[in-house]
Amino acid sequence: MVVLNRIYTKTGDSGETALGNGTRVAKYSLRVESYGTVDEVNATVGLARLHASDPMDGQLAEIQNDLFDLGADLCRPDMARDKDAEYTPLRMVDAQVKRLETQIDSMNSALEPLRSFVLPGGSALAAHLHLCRTVTRRSERLVMELASLEEINPAAVQYLNRLSDWFFVASRIANDNGKADVLWVPGKNR
Description:
The chain is mostly helical. It has five helices and four strands, in the order E-E-H-H-H-E-H-H-E. The chain has helices spanning 30-49, 56-74, 94-108, 124-147, 154-174, and strands at 16-18, 24-26, 118-119, 182-183.
C-alpha cells in the first residue's frame, strides 16, 4: 500500500530523484523523462474524461490505472534483479495490451474505413483524445530511446504503441462514429 503523509521531502532539491529501486538519478535522466511523460499522458486522459460518458469513460479510467502501472514499471530499472527485490516489482503484462487490442477491434468495427487522414478536432472529446494520442506517441519515442540503452519490459513498449492506436480509434468514435471526423484535404489552401 502507498502511504503519502509528506508531500515535499526536499530530497530532490539537488536535482536528483529516486527510482523505484532506490537508485538516485538526475531528474533529467531519460528514464525519469520516460515515466514523467507517461504521467503527462495520464493528465491528458483526465482532461478527456471530462467530456466522456460510459462506456468510454470507464475504459479511460482503466487506462489511467494502467498508466500508473506503466510508470511503476518504468521507474524500476534492472529487470534481471526483480527476483532479488524486497517485493515483486509491478510490471506491465500482456493481458493489458490484449485488452486494448480487443477494445480497438470492437470500436473499429463500428467505423467506415478511412479514405483520408484525420485532422485533430471535431468534438471536444475527440480533440482531447487526439492530444492523448500525440503525447502517447512522444512517450513511446522516449521509451524506445531508453530501450536502446537499457532493458525495458516489452509489454510496456507494446502497451504504449497500442494505446496511441486506441486513442485514435476512440477519437473517431467520439466524432459520431467517424461521421464528424475532420478530414485532411491535401493542398486545399494553396
